[in-house]
Amino acid sequence: MKHFLIEIEYLVSVEALGDAILKHRQFLQTGYELGRILLSGPRVPATGGVLIARALSLEEIEAFFEDDPYKILGLARHIFIEFNPVKHQDFLKGWVSGEPSP
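User: That's the sequence. What structure does it adopt?
Assistant: Structure tokens below.
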């Protein structure tokens, strides 16, 4: 399992996102349900967002985010940074090792 920090950078003002915010969060919920996303949230100030995710490959996680409403509507770009979580809190052991989500 590979791990990624994903930075979402808005290409428009946060006010211009409108209803896309709700659609984006619904899309992210799918990632949580599939066990792909560990956490997510907006940047401060609100110029984008940050996620921690996992997938079998960079190509797989990039393909997943092709369905993000922000990407489809041209509202944001995604930057994928692969990293190796060699240290983590004990309660994350299963997620880091690639175990399926409950």
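Residues 35 and 101 are 5 Å apart (CA to CA).
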